[in-house]
Design a protein that fits this description.
By secondary structure, this protein is an alpha/beta fold. It has eight helices and 13 strands. The chain has a domain of 172 residues: 3-Layer(aba) Sandwich (Rossmann fold), CATH 3.40.50. The chain is 28% helix and 31% strand. The strands form three sheets. Strands 3, 4, 5, 6, 9, 10, 11, 12 and 13 form a nine-stranded mixed sheet that branches. Helix 1 packs across helix 2. The longest helix has 13 residues.
Length: 253
């Protein structure tokens, strides 16, 4: 990919500089909210599945020091940009070019064997092809459109690599909550859910979910995140989160 097809953008209120393609899927609120919803501690081994150019994983690493971070991305050109972005932001991260649907042997060869990871975060493609027209841009369509097996494949990969008691955090469309609960029904528990509303008084558009491998605690539904007030003015608390000045309630231990 030529340099002409790459832009350099600042996110997290200028705290994170990203090189990313000018077309296709680009860094947005979903990745930053995912990072802000992820609980991690210094020293944790953390995997960002389907990392793209590294937005969510690197945003988490900017908030939490000394993570052992791995960015997993199947597209070599995006993985290369993720590697460059980690270096440019002086953040330590390994990068693996790996398909989420690869078998356990392929993950182990990349250093991601069973029961080896503390935290997984992921922003899978979640648009329903039956209700959303795919973008003519192949890269954008691949990053956004889900299939009937997408969520099961991604949660299976996370479940396999997480240690017992390890934590998965994901973002999905709010009207697909039943799909998330079904996918997490095997091997995960202690769910915590935090809806994301585009505007106050409107239905949620996203759902952030934290799940614990082997967890047994009751499910919790936390107060929703509101991006914009009813008048369309950005919510102050969320604006601080989006500029890297705080985390969401879901990230609390």
């Amino acid at each position: 990919m030529s340099d002409a097809a790459i832009s350099e953008d600042m996110v997290l209120g200028g705290r994170l500089r990203l090189r990313q393609p000018t077309s296709g899927h680009r860094a947005g609120h979903d990745a930053i909210l995912l990072a802000a919803a992820t609980a991690a501690r210094p020293g944790d081994r953390v995997v960002d599945l389907g990392a793209g150019v590294g937005t969510a994983g690197l945003a988490l690493a900017r908030r939490v020091d000394d993570l052992a971070l791995m960015l997993v991305e199947r597209e070599p050109h995006l993985a290369s940009l993720a590697r460059d972005n980690a270096r440019a932001n002086d953040l330590r991260a390994e990068v693996a070019v790996l398909d989420i649907a690869a078998d356990a042997a392929a993950f182990a060869a990349a250093g991601l064997g069973p029961d080896s990871v503390d935290v997984v975060l992921m922003n899978p493609p979640f648009h329903d092809a039956a209700r959303h027209r795919a973008s003519p841009d192949a890269a954008r369509a691949g990053a956004h459109m889900a299939t009937t097996t997408t969520l099961e494949l991604w949660t299976h990969a996370a479940r396999r690599m997480l240690k017992s008691g390890g934590v998965l955090t994901l973002i999905w469309r709010a009207d697909g909550l039943s799909e998330v609960l079904a996918a997490l029904g095997r091997g995960f528990g202690s769910l915590a859910l935090q809806p994301v509303h585009g505007q106050a008084g409107k239905p949620a558009i996203r759902i952030l979910v934290r799940a614990v491998k082997g967890g047994r605690a009751p499910t919790q539904i936390l107060p929703g995140v509101v991006l914009n007030e009813a008048a369309g003015v950005p919510n102050d608390d969320v604006s601080r989160v989006l500029t890297g000045q705080g985390a969401l309630a879901l990230a609390a231990p």
